[in-house]
Design brief:
The chain is an alpha+beta fold and 476 residues long. The protein contains 15 helices and 19 strands. Helix content is 33%, strand content 26%. The strands form 3 sheets. A 7-stranded mixed beta sheet has the order 15-14-16-17-13-18-19, sandwiched between helices.
Length: 476
């Protein structure tokens, strides 16, 4: 009936913000705040139905047939990207088309009315019911995939969810309901998308949507609505002392899913309750939402409020912060800016992927070209305050998981080892300076075994020095 490409060209030419197509009515353009009907015949129901199905594909058609509104990104080779919403029914759909911003000009969501990243997004009922069931069964994570059963991680192990409410549901329509427009566009482009969302009456969650050989997948982490304290996480009180310094850098390291975000949230909460300071957080995504107590907290999400961690750090240095949380130091620019912030009177808290405290030093230094590595070692020797390496291990009683920690606190000896490229000797300093709040992983593993918190065979799987572990295990 109509040439859809010609309608899209008209949207671009008139700089319209929306095109509406409904059976029995002429196409409608929204330009600014004005709606105007085009001088065209009314849209034919059969043509509109065919167009909607061609645009959506089978997965989204299924979602629409179940009464869900469908949102997705549509890429035109010549005209660029559009946001499309299809509502109504499969036999009588209504289509809304909005041009997306040029991603080369805007790198964050331009929708100023969005105060929080997940405002206005609603999880479909099958997903909401599945999340409720997962929480009741004590799951920490939920994994959904096309052509795969729903899986839950309970006490560190993956188990299938029987009679999952999402059984048989394609993943993409489910996840598109809880993604912002930029998130949907990234997914359409084949990229993985990190995001967080809240389901009223159920809880708050962190998600990662991605493609694989068999289709779309969604990994969801359950987040406690109450910000955890150090006591809640069974972390030592001495960690609270780390954020009582006015400046420097504190790093949390460990593999994915080791509880780094929760530990950082607990430290930020400690600062919030005890110090009248200005805290800026840069997160991807925002997981724990802090409420103002003694401190002023500004939380910014990468891709929503700021384009990147590096840009957010540059901004933060001009925003009079006392404490800056950087969700992850991913690249050279972010690491350099974080070091600069730590050197110039700010307390910086961040994460890095490294297994042990000492290897964290080399992990940072190796990011830089060789001619700059000496200067970076000097910066670390002066500004690094502590490294906490952690991993989560299953409890012996089956009641969840517990953090096994390694804590390095910078002192004169460690600073010298960093400067002089003697990182391999840092472990010896940590072993002999327990009174300063330091300990190696093997010591904490042995302590957890002796207190019967974890099983000995679990501890042995995670120790890297069997002899040292045995020494601590057999000591009084």
């Amino acid at each position: 009936m109509f040439d859809f490409d010609a309608l899209l060209r008209l949207v671009k030419r008139r700089e319209a913000t929306e095109l509406r197509l409904k059976s029995g009515a002429s196409p409608n353009l929204i330009v600014g705040t004005r709606a105007s009907r085009l001088a065209l015949p009314a849209s034919d129901a059969a043509w509109l139905c065919t167009l909607a199905q061609d645009l959506m594909g089978p997965d989204r058609v299924t979602a629409l047939s179940q009464g869900h509104s469908v949102d997705f990104a549509y890429n035109h080779d010549e005209l660029g990207s559009f946001e499309i919403n299809v509502s109504g029914s499969v036999d009588d759909p209504m289509i809304k088309v909005r041009p997306e911003v040029d991603r080369t000009l805007f790198t964050i969501d331009p929708e100023l009315s969005i105060v929080s990243p997940d405002q206005g997004l609603r999880a479909p009922d099958p997903l909401r019911l599945t999340l409720e069931k997962a929480i009741l069964m004590g799951a920490s994570d939920l994994h959904l995939g096309d052509a795969d059963p729903a899986l839950m991680r309970i006490r560190g192990e993956l188990v299938p969810m029987l009679d999952a409410p999402v059984a048989g549901q394609p993943v993409r329509p489910l996840v598109e309901h809880i993604l912002t427009p930029i998130g949907r566009r990234r997914l359409t482009d084949g990229l993985a998308v990190d995001f967080s969302f809240t389901v009223d009456g159920v809880g708050r969650f962190r998600g990662n949507a991605y493609r694989s050989l068999k289709g779309f997948n969604l990994a969801i982490r359950m987040l406690p609505e109450k910000i955890p304290t150090l006591k809640d996480l069974h972390l030592p009180k001495s960690l609270g002392e780390l954020v009582e310094v006015p400046n420097g850098m504190i790093l949390f390291t460990g593999p994915t899913g080791s509880g780094k975000s929760a530990s950082m949230a607990a430290l930020v909460d400690h600062v919030n309750r005890t110090r009248p300071v200005h805290i800026i957080t840069l997160e991807d995504p925002i997981e724990f939402v802090h409420q103002r107590q003694r401190a002023v907290i500004r939380q910014r999400e990468v891709g929503v409020h700021v384009a990147s961690f590096a840009e957010g750090l540059r901004d933060a240095l001009r925003e009079d912060p006392d404490v800056i949380l950087v969700g992850e130091m991913r690249d050279l620019e972010t690491i350099q800016l974080a070091l600069t912030a730590a050197e110039t009177g700010h307390l910086v808290i961040s994460t890095l992927h490294a297994n042990r405290a000492a290897s964290t030093i080399e992990r940072i230094v190796d990011v830089f070209p060789e001619h700059r590595q000496g200067q970076v070692r000097l910066q670390l020797a002066e500004s690094l305050r502590a490294v906490v390496a952690q991993r989560l291990l299953p409890r012996a009683d089956g009641a969840g998981r517990v953090a096994a920690l390694e804590v390095m606190r910078n002192n004169r000896a460690i600073g010298n080892h960093i400067r002089e490229k003697r990182v391999h000797q840092i472990g010896s300093v940590m072993q002999t300076h327990r009174e300063e709040g330091m300990w190696v992983l093997e010591r904490h593993l042995a302590a957890l075994v002796k207190r019967e918190v974890i099983a000995e065979d679990v501890a042995r799987l995670h120790t890297e020095d069997e002899v040292l572990f045995e020494t601590y295990l057999r000591s009084a």
